[in-house]
Structures are given as structure tokens and as C-alpha cells.
């Protein structure tokens, strides 16, 4: 578990450093300006892609959904505002949850819980939908996480997530491996691997769409934004995390462009606990 504790620590640090930081907000505005603006995403999802995810998940007034690995809760708030659904956000970064709670204090129909995606603090069949954006790749035991999603979904509930997947042999050299692990060691599945796992767990209506071209473009923009805001970025993050972050986005961009790492949008329906394996 040491690896995952390191991941938790680095996310906690990042969340503390960027929260309410003006320079970081300026960089985010630049990063997302061509793609519907910054809605709180620290990932690779545009506002239009989020709208498509919300639709696939059936988010609407009267529906209850979980935003799994919600970070500082910007996406969760955005989904409440744009769909009228009741949202719960969960993340294992304590600073992220503190920030999320503070920023959503005036928002009805939203709550944030601190917890681990592998052991959800919820009862069986509590949610109409589970959404997760670009996070599952860093959770080591994917089977356990998806089984937990199934457990908390109502029969007919929707699971919708974006995630990074293996599309080729990522180089094993230490430099590439180190750069890719800056925000936590990655445990990428392949798209067929995801399909097999979801079938095995009892999900149906599984659809997997490739979003790699946009993922590549967004990684290029992340790296470009780091360079453009280098002076303030070094102040906010410190030299080490700034340089590691830049190497991370440069490497993701290179691996994505070379066809070795990609991004998928996955949606599936949970048919009910009687059918569970
Ligand atoms: C790349 S960020 C994405 C955050 C958010 N979904 C977004 O798109 O902006 C990944 C998030 O996953 C969280 N995370 C990673 N492993 C987790 C786990 N086992 N349980 C709960 N949260 C986890 C991290 O703390 C971090 O906030």
C-alpha cells in the first residue's frame, strides 16, 4: 500500500497548493479557454465531454449520483448546476474534501465525503448513477472499485467514467516510468480488459468510446500552460513538483501521440444484485 499512500499524499499536497491561488486559477482559465472554460477539472475532460457524461448517466432532478474521486469538487458542483441532480462527491484527499465542502457550502443537493474508492462508505443500492473522471487508473485494485460501484448502484443504475488505458507497449525506461508516476503509479487496463471486467461483474449495455485525440490535445495544452505560467507555477508548486508535473504532461502527450496510452469513455448499466457474480 506504500504506493497508494504516496499518491494520496501528493494529491493532498497539490490540492492544498492550488486551492484559491490566483495564479493557478489564471493558468486554468488559459488551459480550458477553447474547451468550454474551467469548471474545476484537474484532469482531461472538457465541459462538453462532461455534459455527454451527465447525459449518459441520466443525471436529472430527482436522481442521486456519486462523483467518485471528485478531487476538490468543481466537477461535482458543475454537475449539480447543469443537471439538477443530487450529487455526492468522494475523495481520499482530506484537503480536497475540505475545499470541496467550503466551496459548496451554499449549494443545496450536494455533499462531500472523505473515503477510499475501494471501500465506499455507502449502503447497497443508494445511487442512480456513479460518475468518475480520470481517476480509476491510479486506484490499484480496479476489480474491487468497480464491484463497489456495482454495490452502491440501484438496479438499472448507470456507471459512467473516463479513464486512461493502455493502447500499446509503454517504454519501460526509468525516465518514462518515473514521469508517468508523478501523480501516483498508473495501473492502466486496456479497453477490452475493461469490457471483460465489467461483463464479469454483471454490468450490461457496456459502451466504450475512444477519446484519445482530445486527450493528446489536452495534454499538449497542459504542458504548454506549465511553460507559459512557469514563474508563478514554480512559486505555487515549488520547483520539484513543477518540473515533475511538466514531465508528466509532456510524457502523457508523447505516449498518447505515439499510440501507446489513450483515454476512453466507458458507460454501463448495473442490472441488479441478483445477477451479480
Ligand atoms: C486526476 S485527479 C481527478 C479529480 C477529478 N475527478 C477531476 O477530474 O478533476 C484523481 C483524484 O483521485 C483521487 N483518488 C485516487 N485514488 C483514490 C482512492 N483510492 N480513493 C479515493 N480517491 C482517490 C485523488 O485524491 C484525486 O483527487
TrEMBL record:
GO molecular function: S-adenosylmethionine-dependent methyltransferase activity
Keywords: Methyltransferase, Transferase
GO terms of biological process kind: methylation
Residue ranges of domain Methyltransferase type in the record: 66-161
Name assigned to this protein: Methyltransferase domain-containing protein
The organism of origin for this protein: Nocardia pulmonis
Amino acid at each position: 500500500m506504500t504506493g497508494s499512500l504516496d499518491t494520496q499524499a501528493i494529491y493532498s499536497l497539490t490540492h492544498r497548493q492550488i486551492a484559491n491561488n490566483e495564479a493557478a486559477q489564471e493558468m486554468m482559465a488559459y488551459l480550458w479557454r477553447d474547451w468550454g472554460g474551467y469548471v474545476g477539472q484537474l484532469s482531461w475532460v472538457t465541459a462538453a465531454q462532461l455534459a455527454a457524461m451527465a447525459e449518459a448517466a441520466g443525471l436529472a432532478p430527482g436522481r442521486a449520483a456519486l462523483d467518485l474521486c471528485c478531487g476538490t469538487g468543481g466537477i461535482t458542483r458543475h454537475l449539480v448546476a447543469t443537471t439538477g441532480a443530487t450529487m455526492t462527491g468522494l475523495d481520499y484527499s482530506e484537503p480536497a474534501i475540505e475545499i470541496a465542502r467550503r466551496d459548496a457550502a451554499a449549494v443545496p443537493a450536494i455533499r462531500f465525503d472523505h473515503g477510499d474508492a475501494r471501500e465506499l462508505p455507502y449502503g447497497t443500492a443508494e445511487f442512480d448513477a456513479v460518475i468518475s473522471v480520470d481517476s480509476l487508473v491510479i486506484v490499484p485494485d480496479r476489480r474491487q472499485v468497480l464491484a463497489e460501484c456495482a454495490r452502491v448502484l440501484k438496479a438499472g443504475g448507470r456507471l459512467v467514467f473516463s479513464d486512461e488505458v493502455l493502447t500499446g507497449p509503454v517504454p519501460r525506461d526509468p525516465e518514462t516510468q518515473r514521469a508517468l508516476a508523478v501523480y501516483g503509479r498508473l495501473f492502466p487496463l486496456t479497453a477490452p480488459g475493461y469490457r471483460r471486467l465489467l461483463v464479469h461483474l454483471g454490468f450490461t449495455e457496456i459502451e466504450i468510446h475512444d477519446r484519445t485525440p482530445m486527450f493528446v490535445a489536452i495534454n499538449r495544452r497542459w504542458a504548454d500552460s506549465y511553460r507559459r505560467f512557469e514563474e508563478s507555477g514554480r512559486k505555487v508548486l515549488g520547483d520539484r513538483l513543477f518540473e515533475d508535473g511538466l514531465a508528466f504532461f509532456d510524457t502523457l502527450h508523447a505516449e498518447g501521440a505515439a499510440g501507446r496510452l489513450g483515454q476512453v469513455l466507458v458507460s454501463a448499466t448495473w442490472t441488479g444484485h441478483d445477477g451479480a457474480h
